Amino acid sequence: MNASSNPILRIEGVGKAFGPVTAVDNVTLDIRENEFFALLGPSGCGKTTLLRMLAGFESPNAGRILLEGKDISPLPPEKRPLNLMFQSYALFPHMTVRQNLSYGLEMERLDKAVIRRRVDETLATTDLTQFADRKPEQLSGGQKQRVALARALVKRPKVLLLDEPLGALDKKLREKMQLELKRMQHEASITFIIVTHDQEEALVMADRMAILRDGRLLQVGAPEEVYERPADRFVANFIGVMNFIEGAVGADGLFRAEGLEVKATGNAGPATLAVRPENIVIGPPGDQPVSGAIVDIAYHGLDRVLHVKTAATATPLQVRIPASGAGNWKIGDALSLKIDPAKCRLFQSIKRGTPCPRPLHSSRKRPSARR
Amino acid sequence: MSFNATRPNLLAAPGVAWLVAFMVVPCVLVLSYAFFQRGVWGGVEYTFTLENFARVLDPLYAKIFLNSARIALTATVVAILIAYPAAYAISRAPRMSQPILLFFAVLPFWSNYLIRTYAWIVLLNREGLINNLLRWLGYTGEPLSMLYTESAVITGLVYNYLPFVILAIYSTLSRLSPELMEASRDLGAGPIRTFLRVTLPLTLPGVAAGGVFVFVLSIGNFVTPALLGGGRFQMVGNLVYDQFLTANDWPFGAALGAALILTMIALLLLQARATAHASGERKGEAAQ
């Protein structure tokens, strides 16, 4: 659907090593104009290093970073039309909110009146007008976060980089700010690249996301794409909740595990079947092909997650059912279940440690994006 | 009274007692001499007078005061100019090597003050190491007279108090988050503007603490001007020393000392208030 029509930022074979440690390994990535892009991965996956290379605080050992077709890798941070919102906010403690915002514009040697007008505008859109004369110490965490965002936005960068921008906020405020950030990104029509380790945050906010692990790019795609068709076992496990069933694909092309058979085509050999909790159908005992027993029930308000022990897996399978009208299941109840073959993924390892995704999804990735 | 309320007072008691017995009492005793007449053969004759204080304001002595202040100020400025880059370099060194670098910066301080000052005589005198080195390098003119000059005094003062200034500035620099400097660069300021608008303003408390320290210790110093200035460059400290030990005019020496101590206290209070103002402001703001 989306041929990389308008890449504002192109990361081309970028690598970075700190001594013997490879932080970023040959990453190639296109970021499109005005998109909300998330770099997602566990801590230490290289996402922050990648962001710092975009901002200019680290220089890549390999590859190029192209902004609108121009290589910006040799430029120092102050010469790049990108701005970074720091995880710690890094507000200047000796300046008021207004002075913090004006600082970046003064560096552009803009006219005083212009600076004043643009700062006033940004203060208004970020709801900070009443705090203009306060020092950072006088602000709450959420307010500081907004000042940090405003200070970067007022520069009207081509790309705004956000390093775990919501990490320091509590859950309620974080959820509110996720939507707020999306709204501001939309209104300012600036390309946002956000770094996060929170997969839920990435799913909620991003137009597209990249999943990194050990410095390598595993998958790039829209949240739905990544959630429904994870490229490998790691992504499948990292995004959302996933049940993994170890088994093998027989000569007949059927996946089999203990007491379980699914029509998921693959090459004969050992394989792992991955299925989301919401894609398992349950019924009374004998109704569905696989039998099991409920060992635990977790109530989540909107839905319930049943933990079902079957012969197929060592850990109970998680099955998500709507909380209302879900029948009267109790711990210890016997039941039967079925896995929808259209809604599961089969991972087969060809070589040790190299997950091989089934070529179900439209893999548009360049070969260089994966090693 | 609860245990918790009394304990801090009890803990402070030995320190306070020490200060009162060996600092406050002797100071008050000596300063009280300033209000009496001098004894004929030294010592004090207990007749009340304010004449000693009037003499302090005599142009002759006021000039020495101002001269001392000028020398101390020069030493302070030079010390800060040397200490700031050094402290900056140490604070930017790898975490592991910072304590070692600081150790070397403070190392001279662990040797005796007099020995260190005499070492400068060896270096600076007409037949000293520097002149010998110059001659060895091919310099044939008159040997430079560096010893017994005002510059020698300033050099000695700077050398002796430099470790304090490095430590004071380092302590503020090391507490400064590197992300603040990065944020400044990110917002479009080059390294120089980043230094002038972010780093320097945020480390001024350290500069002030180190600066006041050098100034206060320099203006009252008498060993360095005596040894490196050769008595030709009198500072207030020498004057006080002379009044007590040479001129046998204890009351006048006490009056000079009082003026000196008042100047120092005023400066220290000013600096303490500036620091308290800065941090108090922060606390007050946070409480809102």
Could you give a short description of this structure?
Chain A: It catalyses: ATP + H2O + polyamine-[polyamine-binding protein]Side 1 = ADP + phosphate + polyamineSide 2 + [polyamine-binding protein]Side 1. The complex is a heterodimer of chains A (371) and B (288). Chain A is built from 8 helices and 21 strands.
List the helices and strands and how they pair.
The complex is a heterodimer of chains A (371) and B (288).
Chain A: E1 7-18, E2 21-32, E3 36-40, H1 47-55, E4 62-67, E5 70-71, E6 82-85, H2 97-107, H3 112-125, H4 141-153, E7 159-163, H5 171-188, E8 191-196, H6 199-205, E9 208-213, E10 216-221, H7 223-228, H8 233-238, E11 243-249, E12 255-257, E13 260-262, E14 269-275, E15 280-283, E16 290-299, E17 303-310, E18 317-322, E19 334-339, E20 344-351, E21 354-357
Helix pairs in contact in A: 2-3, 2-4
Chain B: H1 3-33, E1 36-38, E2 44-48, H2 51-56, H3 59-92, H4 98-106, H5 113-124, H6 129-136, H7 150-175, H8 178-186, H9 191-219, H10 223-228, H11 236-245, H12 250-287
Helix pairs in contact in B: 1-12, 3-7, 3-9, 7-9, 8-9, 9-12, 11-12
Enzyme class (chain A): translocase
Catalytic activity (chain A): ATP + H2O + polyamine-[polyamine-binding protein]Side 1 = ADP + phosphate + polyamineSide 2 + [polyamine-binding protein]Side 1
Domain ABC transporter (chain A): 9-239
